[in-house]
Specification:
The complex is a heterodimer of chains A (440) and B (299). Chain A is of the alpha/beta class. Chain A contains 20 helices and 8 strands. Helices cover 51% and strands 14% of the residues of chain B. The chains are: A alpha/beta (440), B alpha/beta (299). At the A-B interface, helix 2, helix 6 and helix 9 of A face helix 1, helix 3, helix 4, helix 7 and helix 10 of B.
Chain lengths: 440, 299
């Protein structure tokens, strides 16, 4: 019941077991997927959605070739992530605009999802974009809901429309005529929170829809919602044919599996998210970012991407060849440094590696040392690089002077080179590329 | 009307599929892996949490073995029994007066509504109630509580939007003492539990109560929305860390959500569930009943 371990940590744990074993087998994938399933469920992804997802990913993972530059574990993470992104949709979905103004946005959702707050934020955002929004108070049930929206309108600096506690369908209709008359181009209708099983209140929403024919019907969902998200989204979508979803309270620490469930069962895009207490705290929703949030391992994914991009497969093969022949030279050593540099700062990379984040202080890693090492090797002659044994006293002095370092530093580099060479010689069965992926 | 009856009433409104979904869990007779899979489905679909569900089922399997249980009906009985036991581990303390109830929770769980209902409840019992509108952050929060106070005809202490909530609490304590109130209920702003500064503000409110009203029995009630998933655990963990929660209230159980995270919560934090919110009217706040709660998950 330990909540503190995130989905990412859990997956890392599973995959660290796999990494140690080298090749992936069908059985191992099955095992890993069982854990992935539990992890998804703990992230509040719906039971059925998680099941479908696992089946799909397992099919993909079995038989997929493990890329040279990745460990088998990383390869599985990659597949899981790709499928998750595919499911979430890859692009940010924009708000539709009516060809014949005003654009009408109908907000709906359960009680406490954050409709009134997000309505105010939406109005504020649209106003910043040069629109003229009108906020309409159709929540006639909750005490002081009208007052709350009124304050929201004031904070957003937009027009506000209310008719007290009269029929919401009538309020909405009159608000639209009001907007037309006043030249306001966007009407945002805030409605009362309601349970999706409340026939009467759902009917009311359908009536509002019929009366004003909204451009957008946005279902507001609390990002902390559990398994219920599927029921809510399905019912609202069946009744109203929603056009999109707004996810609120994403500034909390929820893993937000509900987002995946909603997307999976309705197919409707999540368009915006609420990310804070202030009126400006509304952001477009980026599905790929959400995918890594649900996985809780965005950093690991970035590392995988970087490793894939940076490591030149051919170069690595050459290196491997040389290793097998035990001719690992200082040139190869230099190349290894360059590969590492391409991937970004060492501190960054280490913090991305599963299990390393807490253990390594970025300040402990001396980036300058790497730069210096490169300079030292670059100050050597071709002959010296191929045959480091000839580097004795006077050569060392010259190299130190040429690279702006001390003799101690040159010694230290040569020592590290010897150690690396030994290490690689011992790892005679492993592929270098894999070692490379694992060593830092 | 009992809590379970209300839930059933609520469920009648929905399509049948939901009730039946859970019913077919126990229609077979043989205890096999399919049966346990269906059980897992029932638990996880109720937001019990995957790992908690696994723990529950592992211990159930053990019990089934030990007691040589053969039928699914008997197995279901065993399961229900152990679930009820989990929930009954913690007991609520009886109210003695004067008392303070500090109500906290994340945004939108139904704190103000719960307080409105509570005010009516105590008023009906003949208790003198004072409400403190210490949510000075959300727009119109104080107006919302005032409307509830008017309905229940109880005294409310409030301040302008943006005022220091701690000062509202201080004033409310003074007022409660002066009026010889039996119950002081403090409404606080919804706050996400991972916001350090907002949790500090809550700690400050807590200190004000401890320091200025030591003679009152002090309840710290966290309100959790039953539609919440596993984040409920994080919420309670961090609120508990900040102010040592004493009671739980679970709201919006009139929908189809189940609030299965309660098992973990009660088990981990030993907190009793005091109230259940099942609707929007003043009477829709019920005492928690473990058996009825479990029945709603496993029919």
């Amino acid at each position: 019941m330990a909540y503190s371990s995130t989905l990412g940590e859990k997956l890392n744990h599973i995959f660290s077991k796999l990494t140690k074993r080298g090749k992936l087998t069908e059985l191992e994938i099955k095992q890993a997927m069982r854990e992935v399933r539990v992890a998804l469920l703990e992230a509040d992804v719906n039971y059925a959605v998680a099941k479908d997802f696992i089946n799909k990913v397992s099919e993909k993972a079995v038989g997929e070739r493990v890329l040279e530059s990745l460990s088998p574990g990383q390869q599985v993470i990659k597949i899981v992530n790709e499928e998750l992104v595919a499911l979430m949709g890859s692009e940010n979905a924009k708000l539709s605009v009516a060809s014949n103004p005003p654009t009408i946005i109908l907000m709906c959702g359960l009680q406490g999802a954050g409709k009134t707050t997000i309505s105010g934020k939406l109005a504020f955002m649209l106003k910043k974009q040069g629109k003229k929004p009108l906020l309409v108070a159709c929540d006639i049930y909750r005490p002081a809901a009208i007052d709350q929206l009124k304050v929201g309108a004031k904070n957003a600096g937009v027009d506000f429309f209310e008719k007290g506690k009269t029929n919401p369908v009538k309020i909405a209709t009159e608000a639209v005529s009001h907007a037309k008359k006043m030249g306001l181009d966007t009407v945002i209708i805030d409605t009362a929170g309601r349970l999706q099983i409340s026939t009467e209140l759902m009917e009311e929403l359908a009536d509002i829809k019929k009366a004003v024919n909204p451009t957008e019907i946005l279902l507001t969902v609390d990002s902390m919602t559990g398994q219920e998200a599927v029921n809510v989204a399905t019912e609202f979508n069946n009744k109203l044919d929603i056009t999109g979803v707004v996810l609120t309270k994403l500034d909390g620490d929820t893993r937000g599996g509900a987002a995946l469930s909603i997307k999976a069962v309705t197919g409707k895009p999540i368009k915006f998210c609420g990310t804070g207490e202030k009126i400006g705290d509304i952001e477009p929703f980026y599905p790929d970012r959400m995918a890594s949030r649900i996985l809780g391992m965005g950093d690991v994914l970035t590392l995988i991407e970087k490793a894939q991009e940076a490591v030149d497969q051919k170069e690595m093969q050459k290196l491997e060849e040389r290793l097998r022949k035990n001719t690992f030279t200082l040139d190869d050593f230099l190349m290894q440094f360059e590969q590492i540099s391409k991937m970004g700062s060492i501190g960054d990379i280490l913090s991305m590696v599963p299990g390393m984040a807490g253990k390594f202080n970025a300040a402990d890693i001396d980036e300058h040392k790497i730069v210096k090492f490169k300079a030292i090797i670059q100050s050597m002659t071709k002959e010296e690089r191929l045959n480091p044994d000839i580097i004795k006293g006077s050569r060392r002095k010259r190299i130190a002077a040429g690279s702006g370092s001390t003799i101690q530093e040159v010694n230290s580099l040569l020592k590290q080179y010897e150690q690396t060479k030994l290490l690689m010689k011992n790892a005679n069965n492993g592929k270098l590329a894999k070692m490379f992926g694992r060593r830092f | 009307m009992g809590f379970f009856t209300r839930l059933k009433e609520g469920m009648k409104k929905t399509n049948k599929s939901f009730g039946e979904k859970l019913k077919y869990v126990f229609t077979g007779n043989e205890i096999d892996e399919d049966f346990y899979d269906e059980l897992e489905f029932a638990l996880v679909s109720s937001d019990v949490g995957a790992s908690t569900a696994e723990e529950i089922l592992d211990s159930l399997k053990q019990k089934v073995k030990e007691t040589k249980t053969k039928t699914t009906d008997a197995c279901k009985k065993l399961l229900k029994q152990s679930l009820v036991e989990i929930l009954e581990q913690a007991e609520v303390t009886e109210f003695c007066y004067p008392c303070v109830i500090l109500v906290a929770g994340v945004n939108g769980v139904g704190k103000t509504t719960t307080i409105g209902k509570l005010a009516g409840k105590f008023d009906k019992m003949g208790k003198k109630v004072v409400l403190a509108a210490a949510d000075t952050f959300r727009a119109a929060a104080s107006e919302q509580l005032t409307e509830w106070a008017n309905r229940a005809k109880v005294k409310i202490v409030s301040s302008s939007e943006g005022a220091d909530p701690a000062s509202v609490v201080f004033d409310a304590i003074t007022s409660a003492k002066a009026r010889g109130a039996d119950v002081l209920i403090i409404d606080t702003a919804g706050r996400l539990h991972n916001k350090v500064n907002l949790m500090e503000e809550l700690k400050k409110i807590n200190r004000i109560v401890e320091k200025n009203y030591p003679e009152a029995q002090y309840h710290k009630l966290i309100v959790v929305d039953s539609t919440t998933g596993q984040n409920a655990l994080s919420q309670v963990e961090l609120f508990n860390k900040a102010i040592n929660i004493t009671d739980l209230a679970i709201t919006k159980l009139d929908g189809t959500s189940k609030g299965g995270f309660l098992f973990s919560l009660v088990n981990t934090y030993g907190l009793p569930v005091r109230y259940v919110g099942v609707g929007e009217t003043a009477d829709d706040l019920l005492e928690f009943n473990a058996t009825e709660f479990v029945d709603s998950i496993i029919e």
